[in-house]
Every structure is written in structure tokens, then in C-alpha cells.
Specification:
81% of the residues lie in helices and 0% in strands. The protein is mainly α. It folds into 2 domains: 190 residues, Growth Hormone, Chain: A (Up-down Bundle); 216 residues, MFS general substrate transporter like domains (Growth Hormone, Chain: A, Up-down Bundle). Helix 13 crosses helix 14. It is found in: Cell membrane. It is a multi-pass membrane protein. Keywords: Cell membrane, Membrane, Transmembrane, Transmembrane helix, Transport.
Length: 419
Amino acid sequence: MTKVKQYLLLILLGMAGGTIYDFPYIKYIFYNQMLSSMHINNTQLGILTSIYGIGCLILYIPGGILADKMRSKNALVISLFGTAALAVVFGMTLNFVVAIIVWILLALSSAFIFWSAIIKAIRLVGGEENGGKMYGIYYAANGLSAAILNFLALAVYGKVGNGKFGMAAASITMALVIGIIAILLVIFLPNQDAQIGDQDNSPKLKDFKQVVFNPSVWVIAVVFFMTYGLFSGVSYLTPYLADVVGVSNQTSSMLGIVRNYVFLLLAPVSGIIADRFFHSTLRWFTVGYVILAVSLIVIALSTALPMGVIIILSLIPGIMALGLYGIQFSIIGESKIPLSLMGATTGFVSLIGYLPDMVMPTVFGRILDSQKNHGYSTVFLILAAFALVASLGSVVIYKLNQSREKKSSLLAAKEGIDE
């Protein structure tokens, strides 16, 4: 496979991963529009996201095991078409009871086999070398495509008009784009894991046992937990700039968009740094998370810095958090987890890694409610601790990998002598 084709396929996979999750999280852009068009309240809208989040957590591991027994291409295409169909159903009904069923099924269509299959497909397309750069390209395309689809759906909503028709049009627009990407995958994505077809495709408990009893996988899961917590947690810089620093809500929101979407385009740069300068994603993580921790501590303890300086400082955690998040899955390949266990491993580490979504908003919300503006310092110091734990975890994984490689070399040398 040529480099150009490799990069184009990674971009296509990024488009698939970016757009399929736009619809389950459609409320992030169309919050008030969903309330008015469905005639529901905030609690009911929150229930949809909670149902989806719980469903995803339950399905990550079994979906990962099943994804190892399927062709990645088939898993991705089925998931994309399924999500597109659910978006059409929602857009045509805009009914809360139907929406509950849709969001339950979205966990099946977008998380069950899709998540593990997309991570496996990136590794198959990108190869074992330059993993950081490959995941960086994927996440750059992921963030950009998600942003573009949201802007497109928002434009369609405004063109059609407010209310139910606009909401229906926005949902169907998302469905059409997701469906088109599924067709592109059918046409262009090769069956690089075709050898799976010759194997026993039934999920096996031993696959999960191999993952669970691997100490490296547990530490990887901890690093993923901290990484996603930081990726999600830097969003608190948006209200911080408005509430504490005095930046206008509009400017703060614009800076938030830069942190949430634009900085994900820096993931390839982070991957190049890992591959070319550190020759290891784990070594780059060790240094990068220390930089991230220091930047958060400085913001937490700063009290008299000029507004412009704080605004610039607030961008550093976003650059680092999104840059490191964008290449985190390359540490699975660097840890020499067998490709046959990639899906099960992805499911397991995702189960633990995405738990911050279930815990952090409530904990941080209570901190801010009780401590008011002073609570932001507490939040940022907690996030700094996350970064230091991620750095330490990266060191541990790196040492475990070195120890395993050393044992393998000694064993190979011993077998050579015996022969």
C-alpha cells in the first residue's frame, strides 16, 4: 500500500469515527432545539445521554471480543448504516419514547462492534510502525469531520426553519452523510484482516482472560482513564475564562471550540513527535503529561496575571490534552498486544478509560457549587494530578515492555544455544 493511499484511508476512517458519534451527542449542538421540537425538559434530554453512556460501557467488552472475530470492514459498514437508519427514525418521529429506543440502539450501532473495529482498522491500515503518526492523522480527520458535519446540520436547520422541520432536516442530513461514508468504506476499504474468515469466529472467554491477566493492559487502562479525563476536563477552562478571568461568553465559547475541535488537528504533530523524536509514544507521554500538569498548576495558582497572558496559558492544556489523546491507542501496539486481541483489549481499556464521563461532571459540579469560582483551582489541580498519574503510568508500561522484550531475547538466545 502506498503512503498516499494509506493516509487517505486513515482520513476516511477518521471521517467515519468523527461523524458516527455526532448523532448520539447531537444535543451538544442542538440542545434547545431538541427541547422545543420534542416538547421535553432538561432531565428527559439528559436521560437519553445517560442511557447511551451506560449502554456503551456495558457493550465495550463483548463488542470488542466480537469485533476480533469479524472483518473490520463489515463491522464498520454495518455500524454506520445502522446509525444512519436510527438518525432517520428519530428525525421522522421526534418523539421521546421513540428517542429512548433509538438511543439504546445507538449504543449497539456506534459502540458495540464499531469502536473496537475502528481502532483495529487503523492499526491494520497504518501498520505497526509510526503508530503515533497514524493515530494522529485519524484523530485530526475525526475532529475536523465532526465539526464540519455539525456546522452543516446547523446550516440546514437554519435554512429549513426553526421547530420540528428544522430538527428533522438536521437529523436526516447527519444520516445522509453517515450513510455516504459507509458507502465510501464499502468501495475503498480493503479486507486486510481477511484471514479471520478462516478462523473460528465465535467469541471465546479465553480471549478476555488473556487481556484481563495482562498487567500491561491494566496500566494502559489507567493511562486511558487519565487521558480521557484530561481531554474532557480541559473544557472547564471555558467557563473559567468567563467566570473568573472576565472574558466575554462569546469569546470564551470561541476559544472552547478551538480547544475541542481545532487542537485535535494537532494530533498528527503529536504523533510525529512521538515517532521521530522520542521513538516511542510512551516516552512522549511521560514528558508531555508533565508539561500538561505544570500548565494546569500555573493556571490554578495564578491570581494576578494579565487577561491576555491567562488566555494564552489556557490554550496550552488544550494543545497538550488533545494532542496526547489523539495518539493514545498507539500505546496498545507499542505494548505488543497481539492483533488478534486488539478488539478485546480496546473494549476493556475503553470500559475503564471512559468512566470519567460517568463521574467527573457530577464531582466537578459539586466542587464548583460549593467553592464557587475558587473551585476552578481545585478542578485544575485535580486534573494536574491526573496528568502526573498518566506520566507515571506511561513509565510503568514502558518498563514492563522493556522487561518483556529482555525476557524474550534471553529465551531466544537460550534456545539458540540448546540447538
